[in-house]
Fold:
Amino acid sequence: MVNVVDEKVNQVVEQRKRLLDPPGFELPLLLFAGFRSIIDRMHAELAEQGHPDVRPAYGFAMQAIGRHGATASEIGKRLGVTKQAAGKTVDKLEQLGYVERADDPADARRKVVRLTARGFDSLGRSAAIFERLREDWVDALGAERVRALETDLRTMAPTDGFRLDVAGWFGA
Structure:
């Protein structure tokens, strides 16, 4: 005859063991879920603030363009995509009014992609939203745990920086 108490105790012990020593595949899934929850919330708020057409890939591209502008080749390199793929993204950003193309003052044969006022506005609003979302994590987890998490992630991230090619990495 099966001892129900022993069976329940064993289930609790096994469940606790899984929580204390989860399978290895769970870590990247949890990191990705945390990333997605922040990015999705940021884009929902950004849409409410007048930028409903900004997609995560566009945000990465605008970051790759930076304050001083960049050529399509530089943008592609920073994103880990081809110059042609970067050019398509730039075309869409230009169509939406987030970037403009201008002659490169150092070389008239080249075009530099620069953020417009609308592009800077979306990045500024994104930064403010990210600050508020981080505060949500602080409220839920505590400041010390969030700082420790950030420190630990910096320790584990590559020391030579990280690429902005998330969209390209997922094959999008």
